[in-house]
Amino acid sequence: TIIRENMLREKGCFGIFNILVLFMFAVLLHYGLEMTGIDNFRNYWDEHIYLAKESVIKNIVVLLISVLLTFFVGKLSVFMRNKRVRGIVLMVSCVLMSAGSIFWVCGLHSVPVGDQKIVFDFASVFNNGEYYGLERGQYIAIYPQQLGLVTLLRPFVKLVVVNNYFSFQLMVALLVWLIHFAGTMIVRMISQDNPRVELFYLVFVLTCFPIYGYTAFVYGDLIALPFVMLRIWGYLSCMKKFRVWKLVCLALTMGLAVTLKTNMLIVMIAMILVAIIQFIVGNGKKNLWIATATGMGVLLFSLSVKAIYAPHYEDGAEGIPASS
């Protein structure tokens, strides 16, 4: 009786949640069909997105075609029941993703502008022993969350003297497959090795064109994502089979991700909360160890970066809260 009551209560919660989600996506669909965002290509310093009207009929046609293609992809999942085939498909999709990223970087011939150029320039300046960027009112002092990326760029800029910007783009492009691979491992664990779910994930990520576009953008966004994906995969793996070396990997990947992109703190907080809740409901002390390792990893990287630049900071050089 108690189990039945709990099941009914869970179904009720899921029902309320589904209604709220349905309402939210209905509103998003309404605005998504008739509006789009456009960039100001005439002025690349303008980072604002401007809303513009779009053809509702055209978007509905595209949406219907997408639904039909998704249905067709679902039918192909019958071939994914063989584990060897799934492994080959995963390998091929990782290669295609890396090849697409490299092709985009090589064909774009982009140069750094805005924050990208500033961050790259300060990596070179810091290598020369000049730390005026940490003085009051200077860029790095105002945006201290960029120190992690600058620190990563410093040895790279020093080692790769010629075309270092292009070389860094290539390195980011070569890391893209990790997002794909780690994500597939996560999907396999969550879906309990469901071949259809895995195939949908492979297709959707492979055709997620913003990922390719970001490979040419030398910033912390894309380069931090593989480490976050590895951290989530590591958490699920640790829950399945607890190992100390996995804890170390959790700490390192989360710490590195947050150092490169401060917004990854959102993922860190979410993962810590999940681990704490799992500990409270009685899923073992390993969740407490996972939460502790995650926090310690981020703290270790944060303190290390601060220790490197502490002697060069000017008194009173306070940054604004990290928001990007």
What does this molecule look like?
This protein is globular. The longest helix is centred in the N-terminal third of the chain and has 33 residues, at 2-34. It has 13 helices and 2 strands, in the order H-E-E-H-H-H-H-H-H-H-H-H-H-H-H. With 324 residues, the chain is mainly alpha-helical. Helix 2 packs across helix 8 (195-206), helix 7 packs antiparallel against helix 8 (195-206) and helix 7 (164-190) runs parallel beside helix 10.
Any chance you could write out the topology, listing elements then pairs?
Layout: H1 2-34, E1 35-39, E2 49-53, H2 56-75, H3 83-108, H4 114-127, H5 139-142, H6 147-159, H7 164-190, H8 195-206, H9 209-214, H10 220-240, H11 244-260, H12 265-280, H13 286-309
Antiparallel strand pairs: 1-2
Helix content: over 70%
- What distance lies between the first and last C-alpha atoms, to the nearest angstrom? 50 Å
Radius of gyration: 23 Å
Helix and strand composition category? mainly alpha
Strand content: under 5%
In this structure, how is the largest beta sheet organized?
2 strands, antiparallel
Spatial order of strands in the largest sheet: 1-2
Q: Shape, please?
A: globular
List segments where confidence is low: pLDDT < 50 over at least 5 consecutive residues. none
The total strand number stands at 2
| Tally of contiguous helical segments | 13
Averaged pLDDT, please? 82
Taken in chain order, the helices and strands follow as: HEEHHHHHHHHHHHH
What structural keywords apply?
mainly alpha; 13 helices; globular
Task: State the gist of this model.
With 324 residues, the chain is mostly helical.
